[in-house]
Task: inverse folding
């Protein structure tokens, strides 16, 4: 089994949801998830760069963007076919293009998810 480390932004509400799902799907514990937003965490590259894009290290090789997602998918049996498909250059290029598009709208999506989470928390605690 390959060694896979995934760095994520623990302060990003979208990332929190994504990583929570990946942790549930990673029943074998094949992935080490590291919060790059935690100042106590050592980052292999500049922290700002780690937080700006998704990063993973697969068998010692640093990956970013769609390639990092594909590595994570390969480590999870349910998602492995998608990760294997992403080894094809055209598939990976299309995924990278989609990821770059996502990065442009990420700040707006983060605000939406953050507001919804705040509203749900307020409704549960009786605060408005």
Result:
């Amino acid at each position: 089994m390959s060694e896979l480390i995934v760095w994520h932004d623990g302060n990003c509400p979208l990332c929190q949801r994504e990583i929570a799902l990946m942790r549930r799907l990673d029943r074998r514990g094949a992935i080490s998830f590291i919060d790059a937003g935690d100042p106590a965490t050592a980052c292999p590259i500049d922290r700002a760069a780690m937080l700006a894009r998704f990063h993973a290290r697969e068998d010692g090789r640093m990956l970013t963007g769609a390639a990092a997602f594909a590595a994570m998918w390969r480590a999870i049996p349910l998602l492995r076919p998608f990760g294997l498909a992403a080894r094809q250059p055209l598939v990976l290029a299309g995924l990278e293009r989609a990821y770059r598009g996502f990065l442009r709208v990420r700040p707006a999506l983060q605000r939406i998810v953050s507001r919804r989470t705040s509203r749900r928390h307020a409704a549960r605690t009786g605060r408005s």
About this structure: Helices lie at 13-25, 47-52, 66-74, 80-85, 89-125. The first strand starts at residue 4 and ends at 8.
